[in-house]
Specification:
mainly alpha; 2 strands
């Protein structure tokens, strides 16, 4: 009996779909999230997530300003991420996060102020980018170590 090309094609497609489903339904390919959970109530969680989004936005604005050699714009974008941003922290947040979380976050707020000061004093683009890179290392370290979860 001759092999029917249509049946062979259908079998090949079925076999391929079966293999794909087996691969994607298996958890062995997915990385396990072993970061420490930071469990927060709705108010604190919303604040932390908003602050992180503001940090990304401010860094993006600073980089854009750097591309135009606009040091005033760099300082303005980063100043909002500095210690002044701590004025609105919910009172219960400090007791709700692990110490390591604060040991990463607080130095970054201070670093943003320091970078803003350097930009105002005429630091070079290269120096500002280097300092931003160091601050971003702390961002990456924090995101690698912690995940925010709801209570």
């Amino acid at each position: 009996m001759k092999n029917n090309p249509l049946i062979m094609t259908t079998r090949s497609i079925t076999f391929g779909i079966t293999i794909i489903l087996m691969v994607f339904s298996s958890n062995t390919w997915a990385e396990k999230d072993s970061r420490q959970a930071v469990v927060l109530d709705d108010v604190n969680r919303a604040f932390v997530l908003h602050e992180m989004r503001q940090n990304v936005k401010g860094i993006q604005q600073a980089i854009t300003a750097l591309s135009r050699d606009d040091m005033k714009g760099v300082a303005s974008a980063l100043r909002t991420l500095g210690m002044q941003s701590m004025a609105n922290v919910p009172p219960t947040l400090m007791n709700s996060v692990p110490g390591g979380f604060m040991q990463i976050g607080m130095p970054n707020h201070m670093a943003f102020d320091n970078i803003a000061n350097a930009a105002e004093k005429g630091a070079s683009t290269k120096d500002i980018l280097s300092s931003l890179g160091m601050a971003m290392k702390r961002c990456v370290a924090c995101h690698a170590a912690y995940r925010i979860e709801s209570k």
